[in-house]
Each structure stands twice: as structure tokens, then as C-alpha cells.
Write a structure and sequence with these properties.
By secondary structure, the chain is mainly beta. It has one domain. The protein contains 2 helices and 12 strands, in the order E-E-E-H-E-E-E-E-E-E-E-E-H-E. Strands 1, 2, 3, 4, 5, 6, 7, 8, 9, 10, 11 and 12 form a 12-stranded mixed sheet that branches. A hairpin with a 4-residue loop joins strand 10 and strand 11. The protein is flat and about 40 Å long. The two termini are 28 Å apart. The relative contact order is 0.25. Bound molecules: zinc ion. The site of zinc ion has 8 residues, from loops.
Length: 191
């Protein structure tokens, strides 16, 4: 069963942490230590409605924010990252739980400096405890993926929200199916 979709934006040619002050990234592994850090004026080179920085942060256009609002998608912060408020960092607050085993998640070594894992990868995302497809909304994964400053949550969208992105013609989005673990029957009747 397809339970949701993984949203990956096109490369916008910007580095989210280019102007980050000391302390935002770990000196050892460069994993982000300040979850609330947002750049003031990101130098976006390629303009899409849904895009991604080199360091894996999802950026959306004002048009995309309007579209998501029209569809009543809530529980997301859209934080301006350009002076003229044309682009926003997409930060969902609701989490979906990843089945790490079924997803083939592998964690990198632990950083000597901050104690966090330097990076984590997955083969193909699988949700845990999703008995039905997630229909509406934009979510974050409960665990972090990527390496160094690129390590962050995955952005997941519901099946209806995926359709809305396509229908509205929002540019830059690639959507990959995310499966759910087949639930086992609670009781087994022997013949
Ligand atoms: Zn570190």
C-alpha cells in the first residue's frame, strides 16, 4: 500500500548554512545543532515552487504557500528566507514514524564532538503503523537522514496533497511513493 509520498525539491543552487554564525553547525561533523536556525537572505539561483538547497532544506515559493493554504494544509511553518519574502523554508510540525528496519536505515558513526550520528541513509522509506494512506497534509519524518549539514528530516506528503501539487502545477517537485508495513492479522484461525 502506498501510504504517502516523499517530497524532493529541485536544486535551487543555494546553501542554507552559507552565512550561518559559529555554533549553528557542529565543529566536528557539521550536523546542525540549532534547529531554529533560518538564513536571512538565501541566494536562490534557480526558481522553482518547490526546491531544495545543497544541504537538503526544502524551500517553497510564495505561490506554493498560497496553494497549500487554499487546500487547508496546516501544522506547517513557512519561514521567510529571502528579503522580499518570495521564498520560505518549509518546516512541518506533524511527524510520521518511519519503520527503520523495513526502510533499510543505516546510521553513520557517532561524532566525537557533539555525540550525534554524522549521517543516516535509507533504501526506501516505509512508514510504521500506517493502516490507511495518509491523505491530506505535509509531515516530517521522526528521524533524520543525510550527512553533515545535509542531515535533516524527510518531507512527506499525503496522497491528496500529492495530487494537489500536481494539479496546481507547482514546479520542481519530485514525489516518491512511501509504503506502509502490511499489518499482521490480530488473530489467526487454524483450519
Ligand atoms: Zn558533531
Amino acid at each position: 500500500m502506498i501510504a504517502a509520498y516523499l517530497l524532493i525539491g529541485a536544486d535551487c543552487g543555494a546553501r542554507f548554512f552559507n552565512d550561518a554564525p559559529p555554533g549553528v553547525l557542529c565543529n566536528g561533523c557539521r550536523v546542525c545543532l540549532q534547529d531554529d536556525y533560518v538564513p536571512r537572505n538565501l541566494a536562490i539561483m534557480k526558481k522553482y515552487d518547490i526546491s531544495c538547497t545543497y544541504d537538503n532544506r526544502t524551500i517553497v515559493s510564495r505561490r506554493a504557500v498560497h496553494a497549500f493554504n487554499e487546500y487547508g494544509i496546516s501544522d506547517i511553518a513557512f519561514i521567510p528566507v529571502t528579503n522580499r519574502e518570495e521564498y520560505y523554508f518549509l518546516k512541518p510540525s506533524r511527524q510520521l514514524v518511519i519503520d527503520e528496519f523495513a526502510s533499510g536505515v543505516k546510521h553513520g558513526e557517532q561524532c566525537q564532538s557533539c555525540g550525534l550520528r554524522v549521517g543516516s541513509i535509507f533504501d526506501s522509506l516505509v512508514l510504521r503503523d500506517a493502516l490507511f494512506p495518509i491523505t491530506d497534509g505535509i509531515f516530517r519524518s521522526d528521524c533524520m537522514f543525510g550527512h553533515n549539514e545535509g542531515k535533516t528530516f524527510a518531507v512527506l506528503v499525503g496522497t491528496h496533497t500529492r495530487s494537489a501539487i500536481i494539479k496546481e502545477g507547482l514546479t520542481g517537485a519530485t514525489l516518491f511513493p512511501v509504503m506502509a508495513q502490511q499489518s499482521k492479522p490480530a488473530f489467526r484461525h487454524n483450519a
